[in-house]
Design goal:
By secondary structure, the protein is of the alpha+beta class. The chain has 13 helices and 14 strands.
């Protein structure tokens, strides 16, 4: 085992450089995937398990495991399909009477979701807003540790092989197929960080190549190996390190495809979100404003934002995120009350209560540096939900 010290530097809004050091324990030789296990056929289905991942022990990070072998054979593929329903619609040519193997270990990283997946061969098709109202539009960065993936989009095709990082965008149109595979997946919400959104938006539906892409592959492998031992107190540093790694490794590919990429059609929800973001300090911003500017009915507007907890909740959520960024900016020393009033809160008490409900800590904690520059939210009640629905719960939570 070798230890690679990866030092990242990135700028805050104030252009003050922040430095974060992560130490990823990454072996120069990756653990074998046990390819014979995947090629052995259906007789070994019940015996298969995730090879190189560690199961959680003393970590405080929220995680869950879902495996189809816990389900009757005839229902195994349907359970796997339900598990991924918020992301893609799955298909398979297998005889379902012989079962279908799928296993997933997923970690809630507050601002991200990380998932380690082993699956039998399948086909996949994206869920767009035209077909189903599931407004999840996160980016997915996936690293294949075994197997092969083929993706077709309206603008082209690309192939993922072992060691290659792929960039997919939920909510966009794509379909493809996957052989028996082991995959590491990082879900990144579009509203996490403008710089990350621009970078991944330019690189979506491509593969990352070159030395930096190999570094990202190693980082993902390191996460899979080390997350069982990460404590809750380490999460803010992990989030910032992951953000820096995504930017460092995806930017070269984004630069290459920026001029060639076709503009993506702006949906009604996209327009609404942009209007809200541009008028966060406007006290008159509300459902009536959006109805008027979008030219839609109140009922349609409410349906659009139903998955976000409603229009007013989404507006408040965006204001709180903006306040979080201002509080984390060392060059912005305005009073917390002034920041609250600028974002249309009537008083400091109301703002503090809403802030703590949203993030689980106080505005003062961010101001004095006890918390990450990027807000991290945990998914409540995962243990009580159906195992096949937990991934969807975590991904919806990324929206706030």
């Amino acid at each position: 085992m070798e230890t690679f010290d990866v030092e990242f530097r990135f700028s805050k809004r104030s252009s003050v450089c922040a430095r974060i050091m992560t130490v990823c324990q990454i072996g120069t030789q990756q653990t074998a995937f046990h390819s014979a296990r995947l090629a052995a056929g259906r007789n070994a289905t019940e015996k298969r398990a995730l090879g190189p991942i560690n199961t959680p022990q003393s970590s405080n990070l929220s995680s869950f495991e879902f495996v189809t072998s816990d389900v009757p054979r005839i229902r195994q593929f349907e359970a796997w399909r339900t598990n991924f329903a918020p992301i893609v619609d799955l298909g398979s040519t297998h005889d379902m009477r012989r079962g279908f193997f799928g296993q997933q270990l997923t970690w809630d990283l507050g601002c991200f979701v990380f998932s380690h997946v082993t699956t039998d061969p399948l086909q996949f098709r994206s869920i767009t807003r035209h077909h189903r109202w599931e407004p999840l539009d996160h980016f997915i960065l996936s690293v294949l540790r075994a197997g092969e993936a083929y993706t077709e989009t309206p603008t082209g095709t690309f192939r993922g092989t072992v060691g290659v990082t792929q960039v997919h965008a939920m909510g966009r149109s794509f379909h493809g197929s996957l052989t028996a595979s082991e995959i590491l997946m990082l879900f990144v919400p579009r509203d996490f960080c403008p710089q990350v959104t621009r970078t991944l938006g330019a690189a979506e539906f491509t593969t990352l190549e070159g030395g930096m892409a190999r570094l990202f592959h190693d980082y993902m492998v390191g996460l899979a190996n080390q997350l069982p031992f990460v404590q809750q107190a380490d999460l803010p540093a992990l989030v910032e390190a992951t953000r820096a790694m995504v930017l460092a490794c995806a930017s070269p590919s984004a630069d290459n495809v920026q001029t060639a990429s076709h503009p993506i059609a702006v949906t009604l929800l996209d327009r609404a979100q942009k209007i809200i973001q541009s008028r966060l300090f406007d006290p008159t911003l509300g459902p009536e404003t959006l109805e008027r500017e979008l030219g839609i009915s109140r009922s349609r507007l409410y349906r659009m934002f139903e998955a976000f907890g409603g229009v007013k909740h989404y507006i408040q959520h965006r204001r709180l995120l903006d306040a979080h960024a201002a509080l984390a900016n060392p060059s912005d020393q305005r009073r917390i009350l002034d920041l609250a009033e600028q974002r249309c809160f009537s008083d400091g008490t109301e703002f503090s209560r809403a802030f703590k409900r949203e993030f689980g800590y106080s505005p003062t904690d961010v101001r004095i540096g006890r918390r990450s520059n990027f807000p991290c939210r945990q998914s409540p009640g995962l243990e009580e939900s159906d195992p096949a629905s937990r991934l969807g719960t975590m991904l919806r939570r990324l929206h706030g």
